[in-house]
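Lecture 7, part B: from sequences to assemblies.

Below are the input chains for today's worked example.
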Amino acid sequence: NAGVTQTPKFQVLKTGQSMTLQCAQDMNHEYMSWYRQDPGMGLRLIHYSVGAGITDQGEVPNGYNVSRSTTEDFPLRLLSAAPSQTSVYFCASSYSQGLAGKYNEQFFGPGTRLTVL
Amino acid sequence: AQSVTQLGSHVSVSEGALVLLRCNYSSSVPPYLFWYVQYPNQGLQLLLKYTSAATLVKGINGFEAEFKKSETSFHLTKPSAHMSDAAEYFCAVSDAFMNYGGSQGNLIFGKGTKLSVKP
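Predicted structure of the full complex, as structure tokens:
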């Protein structure tokens, strides 16, 4: 298993450009999520999905769009990049938290480092 | 709402000394708690997790953490620091509760503590 993969590893954008960060997992996980990591802020949840066709907002969703057409893929779109979106982005996945008392561990990808000029 | 607070954004210890990284949580019901480690320019790796009644949790690389309900704490310790322990450590709480199923399991992270180990 490759686990959680993210592409690209690095990206530089100009303000106003759009792009899609790719995330894929091969573990048949229902749950997938996107976090951003900023110095001194920890990781903050952007969007998440509990299955194909179902997405919801996290703590910091503004400026980002997501869709989940397959179980394996969960792309994150920046429609009009801004310098405030300079960050490291992590994708994570897990089985769904269906049963009380049984926690399903989240697995993280290696991250995408994005700079917006 | 649940939250975690990590005390100290930077901690420096000498090689061989005790490592103590502090984490306090806020939750009205028994939470799932986690410690993750991030080595430079890498992703997050799970160190250990509290998901049961066992209050002392052992993780990888000699780390352990104790869940103390009375103090709402989940501090991470290691008896003897090694140079390879230098990294950033994150405490996190899940919005999935132990007594209830069917939630998303989103993680709420603390701001992180950077551990330096001096030779």
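Note for the exam: The first strand of chain B starts at residue 3 and ends at 7. Keep this in mind when comparing with the next example.
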